[in-house]
Each structure stands twice: as C-alpha cells, then as structure tokens.
Amino acid sequence: MINRISRCMTTLVSRYMPEPLVLAVLLSIVIFFCAWGFTDNTPVQLVNMWGDGFWNLLSFSMQMAMVVVTGNALASAPQIRRFLGITASIAKTPAQGVMLVTFMSALACAINWGFGLVVGAMFAKEVARRIRGTDYALLIACAYIGFMTWGGGFSGSMPLQAATPNNPIAHLISSESNPLGIVPVSQTLFTGYNIFIILMLLVSLPFITRMMNPKGEDVRNVDPKLLQADPDFSKTLDENATFAERIEESRLLAYVIAGTGFSYLALTFFKNGFSLTINSVNLIFLMTGILLHGSPAAYVRAITNAARSTAGILIQFPFYAGMQLMMEHSGLGGMITEFFVNISSKDTFPLLTFFSSALVNFAVPSGGGHWVVQGPFVIPAALSLEADLGKSVMAIAYGDMWANMAQPFWALPALGIAGLGVRDIMGYCMTALIFTTPIFVIGLYFL
C-alpha cells in the first residue's frame, strides 16, 4: 500500500508541483490575498510588509549557503569519502540502502539539524554510488525525511528558545514562580511523549521508506554525472613553484587556520557549555575541511566546486522572509492560530496546535520565525486553558517539522548537494508525512 501511495504521490508532484522559486512566488500571492481578505490591511500596507521583510533573512541565507558549501567541500575530502564509503558498504541491497540512509539522517538530525541535513545528503550520494539499482531520488528523499526528527532533538529551535531567558515570548509566561518566563527542556525535550515520538520516528521511518522502494521499471535511473566522485583538489608543486604558490599550498598554514578555529570552539564550549548552533556547525565543517584538504588553496578549489549548489537558497529565501513578515504583521498567522485555539479544549489543544502549526509552516518554514508568529497566541491560550505548556511548545515544533515534508524550503540544501529538483523527492516526502501522522497524534493526545 505504501509503495502504491508513494508512486501516486510522486506522479502528482511531478505533474503539478512547480519548482521552489515559483512555489514561493505563488505562496506569496496566496498569503497576500488571504491577508487582504481576512484582515484590515490594505494592499499597499501588505506590499510594504512584504518588501520590509524581503531582506530579513540575509544572514540566515548566508548561514544556509555555508551549510551547503562547507558540507559539500568536507564530503569531497579524501578521508571523509573513505569514511562514508565504509559506512555505506554496510548496505548490500537497494532496500537496505534506503533504510540505512533514513536511519542515519534521522539520527543525525536529532543530534543537530544542520549537521543532519548535510550529512544525510552526502551519505545518500555515497550509498547510490555503491549500490546498483537504487532509486537515487528516493535516497535523497530519505535524507530529507530524516529531518522530521529535528524539532524534538537536541537542536530543536522552539524548545531551546522557550528555555532561554528573555526569549520573545518570555514576558507572556513570566510569573512569581517563573520570573524568567521560561519553559525548561525538562518539560519539552526530556518528556515521555517527546522521547516516544522521536524513538518511533527513528524506528518506523526506515521501514516506511523501505516500503516506498520502487522495483523494476519504476526505478528511476540517475544521471551518472551526479554520482561522479569529486576530483582531487590537492596540487603537487614542482621545483619552480613561486613563493606565493608554496604559501597557498602550505599544509602548515592549513594546520594554523584549523587549529585557531578549533581553539576558539573549545574556548566557547568551555565558557558556555557544549551547544551546537548552525554557526558552530558551519565553523566545524569549515575548519575540518581546511584541515583535511591539506592547504588553503585546495580548500578554495573544493568550495568553488560546491558553491554552484547554493543558487536555490540565495534566490528563494528572500521571498520567504517577505511572507514571514506579512504573516506576522498582518495578523494572518495569529488568525489561523486563534481559529484552532477557539475550537480547542484542554485535552485537544496540543493536537490542534500541531495542525495549526503545520498550516502556518507553508508560509513561515523557519523554526525561529515560526515561534515568533505562533508563540504569542499559543502560549496565552495554553495558560488560559490550563493545557500542558511544554506540550503546547512541542506541538508547534512537531507541526513545523511534520509539514516540512510537504514544504520544500528545507530540502534546498540537500537538493543542492544532490543535484536534484524538488519534484524528484517530494512525492516520497509527502508519503512519509501521511504515514507518520498517527505517531504525532498518539504522542500529543494520548500520552
């Protein structure tokens, strides 16, 4: 059944889902008209909101572009290629390859979402190189499907923001007993329902993707160029090399740069405690890449080779930034949340918050932005209904990460690494969305 549904979803997506940039434009238009029709804002005000927000994600866009290029460059280092090859060799059949990629990606994303996004795609490419008859698009989809664990993992932005003093929603929670206005991770990440949901995803997702595995003529052949190993970026100098060339290819200089970067990370972790952020992940990838490539010039060549994968991120993120501000400032995001709040009871509130979060995700796929849009409405409602505050926070996170399977925003880094388009993978991802729904319902309503 899962195989038939995945084939059907893949066919529908290939026919009707536009490329991500066009989808972002269409979503912007839909949000504009919804905000115009359901709020008191004029078209001029909405256009101003969209334009004011258009460049709000520039720093985030750069972070995500760095995720792609540093991850890709790291994967092209000889040592990493050997490690990925050894790990990928565990799988002997296409079905085993699909399960292995899904599990490794889900586990990595539960540890750190930025790390998992990149490593999952890199690992999927290596498995595709080694196992003939594997559907490459499904393998890359598996790498993205594993992303479904991130919101309840150690780097989940919403539970971590809720546990941070002076976060944007802290003033709504602050009281005599909780002057900092925080929701500690003991009430979100380290709860029975969250552990249940994440473990169930880790266990079930590999089997779900295995049952999607196409056979025979349904297997889509991959362009061999996409699986070609990256060239060796090292360079051997001859006796006539200039001083500048020797500096550029200096292994000692690579050691100095990497040593400085790792020293900074060690000092930061010692001072603030071990916590992986997207910036620290990027720095780890960058410094490790320089170290393993062996010289600054070799690393630059690897980065140059990887940079072409960032086009989708650079052009699309501004459109989502405009949508996010339009949703927030027009009040449309609040209206969507309030609708679900008004039909909720104490027991159903987390579950309905989950579905409202999934809906908002299409316009605000960024976890941090999502929290800013929904948090001001969900938190007061949870307090008013005396609903579980921690579960309400996690419901926003779950809805966000669940709906990512139908929203290609976060797939862009993986697609950039893989060299595929959104239509190649989203049918599989939507199938995973359908069959993981019971896990979230059980966790939020029955536990």
UniProtKB/TrEMBL annotation:
Matches recorded under InterPro entries = CHP00366 (IPR006161), SCFA_transpt_AtoE (IPR006160)
User: Which Pfam families does the annotation name?
Assistant: SCFA_trans
Membrane-crossing ranges are: 21-39, 98-124, 136-155, 190-208, 252-270, 276-300, 425-446
The source's superkingdom equals: Bacteria
List, alphabetically, the GO terms of the cellular component aspect: plasma membrane
Q: Which UniProt keywords apply?
A: Membrane, Transmembrane, Transmembrane helix
Report the NCBIfam families cross-referenced here. TIGR00366 family protein
Supply the name of the protein: TIGR00366 family protein
This protein's species is Rodentibacter mrazii
